[in-house]
Amino acid sequence: MIKLQSASAPLYPRASTGIVLMCVGVASLCVNDALAKTLTDHYSALQIQFMRNLIALPFAILIAVKMGGTAALRSHRPVAHLFRGTLWIAATVMFFTSLKYLGLAEATALIFVAPLFITALSAMFFRETVGWRRWLAVLIGFAGVLIAIRPGSAAFQTVSLLPIATAFVYALLMLSARWVDERESVWTLLLYMTGTGAALSLFIVPFVWIPVRPEDWGLFAAVAIFGTAGMTMMTQAFRLAPAVVVAPLDYTAIIWATLLGWIVWNEIPDALTFVGAAVIIASGVFIIWREHRTNARP
Question: What is the average pLDDT value for the chain, to the nearest integer?
Answer without folding.
Answer: 88
